[in-house]
Design brief:
The complex is a heterodimer.
Chain A: H1 3-11, H2 23-57, H3 63-67, H4 81-86
Chain B: H1 2-8, H2 19-61, H3 64-67, E1 71-72, E2 77-78, H4 81-110, H5 116-131, H6 134-160, H7 175-199, H8 203-211, H9 216-227, H10 229-245, H11 248-253, H12 271-278, H13 286-321
Antiparallel strand pairs in B: 1-2
Helix pairs in contact in B: 2-13, 4-7, 4-10, 5-7, 6-7, 7-10, 8-9, 10-13, 12-13
Classes of the chains: A mainly alpha, B mainly alpha.
Chain lengths: ~90, ~325
């Protein structure tokens, strides 16, 4: 770039500050919002799995369930101690 | 033990390696080579074993096995085209969803969107998704995902039934719940490997981009992602491989119906689910056929991995030349 052109460019008031609603900033903001949203959607499954397990299974959690053998047919009680040892 | 005292001696700075040193060196080398070779041998053994048991099935059914679509044990008619279709369709859908979310997650966690400590928490949450056993995912799919997507699926079928993707109603297990759960299982893999790739881009590169006046997303989309694309592509290939071989959750969710349909709501089948569900009660007639199917699954996975690494080395050479 030649000297006069550079001097001219300096005189012109260059818009060096980024405006909030300029196209590029807007795109950037929208993409950021989308990624935030996606991150939260992606963490829903974990919470959902934990919620399902605790709500449906939490009430039956006891020492007996963890330690004793499965009940025979038509009986209640017992647990899955054998499965835990096996695992 | 002589060597240790030699090295530690006050007067001597160095000593030639003793016989014991040579022995340890050679011995370790031998062990390492044996370990490496035994991995190859193990793979060869698996191939030989499955291949050997599959030969009767291959002889009897030939290529018709790959194109047939009936599975009739009584009449000895076997075809796995629906299972091949289901395997590829479910894996592609899962990769599409899980890949987009996984890469987004990787960007979110590496590009300073969060305070570093909070990002670490989020990272752990995503990694925990990989620690959930696949049976639990299957149960979760049955009890949570299917009821949750049923209203949407019914609405889509009622209003947009003309589109092949929504052509049937959701009866329960089907392609969409299977693909969704599979996507969640693929996501941690894709996210973790993509994060590594993004973190390996030198910080200077990002600073240079910002210095040129880019916005955050211009830097991400035009500088960081192209620089990390090899690693991200590798992440997608790994994720696809995992999706192809996933068994238990799919066996519980995909519906196990031998039909080929584009519809997201119709039950389908996959090779891994077919194998898992048919082996326990397989008779002598079925075992060679199932081994044949296992060989086909192995071949598909192998081809995907080979294509993946071929593309990766191709693009890798190009970026290295720049």
């Amino acid at each position: 770039m030649s000297e006069p052109a550079a001097a001219q460019a300096a005189q012109i008031d260059l818009p060096l500050e980024r405006q909030l609603f300029e196209g590029r900033s807007l795109t950037s903001g929208i993409l950021s919002a989308i990624v935030w949203l996606m991150a939260f959607i992606a963490s829903i499954p974990l919470l959902s799995v934990l919620y399902m397990l605790v709500v449906k299974g939490g009430s039956r959690l006891s020492w007996e369930a963890l330690s004793s053998l499965p009940p025979a047919g038509f009986e209640t009680g017992g647990g899955f101690g054998n499965a835990i040892v096996g695992t | 033990m002589d060597s240790a005292t030699d090295k530690g001696g006050a007067g001597t700075v160095s000593a030639p390696p003793s016989g014991f040193d040579y022995f340890v060196d050679r011995g370790f080398r031998g062990l390492a080579v044996a370990g490496a070779v035994s991995i190859l041998l193990l793979l060869a053994l698996i191939l030989w074993e499955i291949g050997g048991k599959a030969i009767p099935g291959m002889r009897e059914h030939g290529f018709a096995f790959l194109t047939g679509s009936t599975w009739d044990v009584k009449n000895g008619q076997f075809g796995i085209l629906p299972a091949i279709w289901g395997t590829l369709y479910s894996s592609l859908l899962a990769l599409l969803i899980g890949g987009v979310f996984g890469v987004a997650m990787a960007i979110f966690l590496t590009q300073d969107f969060l305070h570093p400590k909070l990002a670490q928490v989020f990272r752990t949450v995503v990694e925990l998704l990989a620690a959930i056993p696949s049976v639990v995912y299957g149960l979760w799919g049955i009890f949570v995902v299917i009821p949750a997507i049923r209203p949407l699926a019914e609405w889509l079928h009622a209003n947009l039934g003309g589109i092949p993707f929504f052509g049937t109603s959701l009866a329960g297990p089907g392609m969409l719940p299977a693909a969704l759960v599979l996507a969640i299982m693929v996501l941690p893999t894709v996210a973790a490997v993509s994060q590594d790739a993004l973190r390996q881009v030198p910080y200077k590169v990002k600073e240079a981009a910002y210095g040129l006046g880019t916005t955050r997303w211009e830097a991400i989309l035009r500088v960081l992602l192209p620089a990390a694309r090899n690693g991200i592509f590798g992440a997608l290939v790994l994720g696809f491989g995992r999706a192809l071989g996933e068994t238990m959750a799919l066996a519980m969710l995909v519906g196990n119906a031998n039909q080929i349909s584009l519809s997201l709501f119709s039950p389908a089948n996959t090779l891994a689910a077919l194998l898992a569900l048919n082996f326990p009660e397989a008779g002598p007639k079925e075992i060679p056929v199932l081994m044949y199917a296992a060989l086909v699954l192995l071949a598909i996975t192998l081809v995907v991995n080979v294509i993946g690494s071929a593309i990766m080395s191709y693009t890798g050479d190009k970026s290295a030349a720049r």
